[in-house]
Amino acid sequence: MNEFELIQHFFTRSACAQGGEHILLGIGDDCALLQMPAGHSCAVSTDTLVSGIHFPDNAPACLLGQRALAVAVSDLAAMGATPVGFTLAITLPELDAAWLQAFSTGLSAMAQQCAIRLIGGDTTRGPLAMTLTVMGAVPDQQALLRSGAQVGDLLCVSGSLGAAAAAVPVVLNETASDTLAESTLQALLAAYWSPQPQLKLGQYLRGKAHAALDISDGLLADCGHIAKASNVCVQIQQAQIPVATAAYELLGAEQALQCALSGGDDYQLAFTLPSEQLASLQQQFADVCVVGQVCAGAGVQLLDAAGRIVRQSYNGYQHFN
Amino acid sequence: MNEFELIQHFFTRSACAQGGEHILLGIGDDCALLQMPAGHSCAVSTDTLVSGIHFPDNAPACLLGQRALAVAVSDLAAMGATPVGFTLAITLPELDAAWLQAFSTGLSAMAQQCAIRLIGGDTTRGPLAMTLTVMGAVPDQQALLRSGAQVGDLLCVSGSLGAAAAAVPVVLNETASDTLAESTLQALLAAYWSPQPQLKLGQYLRGKAHAALDISDGLLADCGHIAKASNVCVQIQQAQIPVATAAYELLGAEQALQCALSGGDDYQLAFTLPSEQLASLQQQFADVCVVGQVCAGAGVQLLDAAGRIVRQSYNGYQHFN
Asked: Were both Cys, which of A223, B47, B217, B245 would link to B316 (CB 3.0–4.6 Å)?
């Protein structure tokens, strides 16, 4: 099987997944062609995952395919975009049919779930890595930016935090997991391997939230991005952070909180919202929690139950530090 | 300088290059936002370059930045698209400010030349590699596909072929270049490091050419893609192929012809055209050559001056063979 046949064979399912009404031309020409619906812009985001840096060298291919797409689509959710198509540039050390079969199964499952279709890509030889570029449609003027937070907004997150970061030693087999309850183990592995892009919530928040992003670097660091882009201070009430139960069960309260604050990889949304929007939002999205508020000033403040500032030294994951 | 500052600092020039009227939001949020002009589709293509596979490990960073973008934009040219924006996912073994400075200088120069703007990306640590995803605008129904070739069309190429492939041993310092004329050496290095995306020609060919692609795998292999997608036979007259002078001077007639047929990396366009379009086309694009024709049948036939089929065993570059 040559390179061209390889690409066609394994990725056909992802190319035929749900969606596709805005794809005029998919895989197989020099470019794919997308046609956004009238009155919509095209949202674009690129993510790279490198073996040994972003996932373990021996990562199960199916889970890896699933996670790689989920992480990328999460950026569309954070803009309030509806997924349309994605490209996959994958670098492989060798042509391993079983690995590719499993990877494309995981990729296709997530593509189905997100109603996004593979529209092109590139397959090259080299150390295992992949870059996904996702494209979605967002109604003009309604994209959720980082820069719109307003003084008086509530700060909300879409669900519990910390399980993905807590799961890393389990994923790497660096911790004894045989004493863990099976349900805890499964919750940790699911948080790491199967983050759920918050697409419905992102689309609901169009025209309602003032600022939003997905939590990839950790709550503190990502709220720092909102604070900087919006020229405001983001205050976080430490006691209100929805720390994931599985993280708590594995690590105890203090370390689980650290995972929630700084661990990243949860791919929940953080967003700021006028308070009058909260009740109807929580009726539809029961997992949404208020964790703080936006006030005048700069930067991020973490507050304890008495309203005192908690000192934090760690500011999120940076590859080159 | 942290990861966020690094990205901002070195790639700001590329982000501020020419163009940009269709970019609603550039670098710095979860997604960029593009707005195609009315009546246009969005053309998308992804290319990966891996160190040691697609370029030498010690490639000069400035030339590499220039070439990486040119190769990617060439796919837009092949669709007849007008460049809009691109994302750059770059994986670096270390934070080397001098290297990044040089790379971004080359990238910016090519971005200026192509009027395309950097709109986002990802910077990760790992073995040197880069994935560029380019986006352009193409008027509805006018994209140049591989599938439209018609029996009776002329087969044309946009310029001379073979110099980029001939240059590889020179680029790798595997051949003594001190006996070469300086002009030949420069022509070879320019062909390899500075391919020129045929944007003006691609845009001219909208609504005129029946099929087109850029020659990245070699003339024979790429004409095979047209033949297959269009269900036709593509005949190439060997004597009419515009073999690059520099390739001829380095390698002699026979090997230079092989480079033109199978070497790839030239990023000229190959396209099929009704014969009545030829005269006005060549008035504006003097380098365009007729190299064959489209007839009923399948596959690619290489013909000698007497019209006999020349046997060819090599079918273009495939990473996994």
From this structure: B217
